Amino acid sequence: MHNRQAITPRRLWNSLRDYDIWPIYLLGLVVYIPQTPMTSYITLILKGVGFGTFTTNLLTIPYSVGHIICLLLLTRLSDWLKERSLVSMIQSIWTLPCVIALRFWPGTMTNAWGTYATVTVLLCYPYCHAILVGWCSKNSNNVGTRTISAALYNMCVQLGAIIGNNIYRADDKPKYHRGNSTLIGINILAILLFIGTKIYYIYRNKHRERVWNAMTEEVSVILWNLAE
């Protein structure tokens, strides 16, 4: 399938069943959930602890700047180390202490500046989205798979955002103990998924290398030309 072919149900199915990209879809679904509630409700939270509208708007500037800087640094670090899974995991490692503090610190949602500091550090997290999008593209074997995989990955991210926006509930106010406990569990799951994805791709690469080395030179040349 290439960019001059029409999409047919068969070609669509062949792209969807490329299970080597499924771990990245799962990462897209899970790893952004712990940051979503604070991203969506930060202005309401800051107003709830006593800040005015103008002050709240000013207080959102530092985390926005920090978030951009950390995103660029994380993406550059991934390119420099030639590592995606473990570098992307820094996002979840960064977030975990913050959600633990929000859950167990007695001043959460009552101490204005302490809550602001915790939320700001959380939202400065190094965003791994660019790394995972590029990883999804690199793991796609052709144009058709690449196009569909990018769409599916973004659908998983949006589905995760829907889940994340429903974790803080009205009956859990004002400290959101249940919601923050859920975020801690999801954050730990995200770390385990990054590690599991790393192990899976190491296994798959070794398996493919064994298959390739077992081929005759003539067969390997034919397959290489087909890939080109």
TrEMBL record:
Subcellular location: Membrane
The entry's keywords: Membrane, Transmembrane, Transmembrane helix, Transport
Superkingdom classification of source: Eukaryota
Cellular component GO terms held in the UniProt record: membrane
Membrane topology: Multi-pass membrane protein
Gene Ontology MF term list: transmembrane transporter activity
Species: Aspergillus kawachii
SUPFAM superfamilies from the UniProt entry: MFS general substrate transporter (SSF103473)
UniProt-recorded name of the protein: Allantoate permease
